[in-house]
Amino acid sequence: IVNFAHGEIYMLGAMGVFLTGCVLTPYAQLVRAERYSTAAHTTVIRSVATATVQILLAFLNPTAVSLILGFCAGLAVQAVSLTPAARVLSVPRSTRKRDRFLMAKYAPQISLDIPTALLLATVLNVMNLLVLDLYSRDEVGYYSMAYRVAALPLTLISGALGAAFFQKASASYPATHGFG
Q1: Are 85 and 36 in contact (CB under 8 A)?
Q2: Which of 30, 104, 107, 115 is buried most, with the most CB atoms less than 10 Å from its CB?
């Protein structure tokens, strides 16, 4: 039986997943349109909003839930800032013929990407859920925050390298007719 404390965590987790989807869709549209600067600015906005809310809540209500609320608030701010930027892009309308073509073209990638993303999300978050049964929410929150702070430099460096490579690869593709 799940008690109310675990219910809060699960509800906030679901909200985080929903907001992540709300952020990743327009973010991908901006990257596809090569609007890297706008996409990067919204990431900075999210980081500042997350840190600000988490610091304020740390003084008002120093609990693990405050950390998760700050994370969700940062995602919500980024979603709000991304939506107008992505709406001005000209995105081709979907048709059945185009959808079938895209599914046929990218089916192998999708069949690998979805399980990989689920496995990665599980690996990154399962420890928090396992530790939650052994320790209090506060201790799990501190563990989660320490884990994310320790991984942050690596995440930023790999994200920057990935964005730079993607930008160079997409610029060179028309000239070389491939990535090889």
Answers
A1: no
A2: 30
**Is the sign of the CA dihedral 124, 55, 73, 77 positive or negative?**
negative
Identify which has the larger pLDDT, 7 or 2: 7
C-alpha to C-alpha distances, 70 to 5, 15, 77, 96, 132, nearest whole angstrom? 18, 12, 11, 40, 19
Average pLDDT over residues 36-56: 86
**Alpha-carbon distance 173 to 95, whole Å?**
26
Selection from 83, 64, 66, 69 nearest residue 21 by Cα: 83
SS3 of residue 52 by DSSP: helix
Q: pLDDT at residue 169 above 50?
A: yes
Residues 6+ apart with CB under 8 A from 36: 30, 163, 167
